Amino acid sequence: MENYSNFHIVQHPLIQHKLTLIRDKKTSKKEFSELVNEVAMLMAYDMTKDLPLKEVEIETPIKKMKSSVVAGKKIVLMPILRAGIGMVNGILQLIPSARVGHIGIFRDEETLQPHTYFFKMPKDGTKRDIILIDPMLATGGSIIAAVDKLKERGCKNIKCLCLIVAPEGVKAFCEKHPDVPLYTAALDECLNEKGYIVPGLGDAGDRLFGTK
Hints:
- Helix 1 (about 15-25) runs antiparallel to helix 2 (about 30-45) and helix 2 packs across helix 3.
- The two termini are about 35 Å apart.
- Helix content is about 30%, strand content about 30%.
- The protein is of the alpha/beta class.
């Protein structure tokens, strides 16, 4: 697959270990949910390493000192409904002050085209850094549509976080939004005839919420 400057695979050993457990069909609903949140937190740690800092003065039990805190407005997490919700709590453990919006997009099972049915974010969200969240990037249609919507609203600092992605989706996304960083834990083989990622992890929403 072609190299894209905005495409990043996070290959930390703990992430890869937990991702293997997530993929395993024998993993229970409870364990699946916990692992997804853990991986989301670890990936968010990596993808926020470029957050700006500012210096403040504090007083330790020993003396006054100058130290660093994150500068700027709080991050907005934007999970794509419904499966994206399953990654939010993990990231909030790392960034508890983050705001949370929601984007509702569903994929037509026959045409595979995305349809937006819900959009909600903080009023000043356009001035904040956005982390768009979805466990899987298959054809890329849903995330492309979500980024389109965010850009239409005036958002400029957007990053995308997915657990696993397919080459077809990465190509479509990176060619449509080369200015938006895309982070994943794994680049899988391909999409099957039904548009599912192979080998994948099954339907993330169904496994998170026990609906199948």
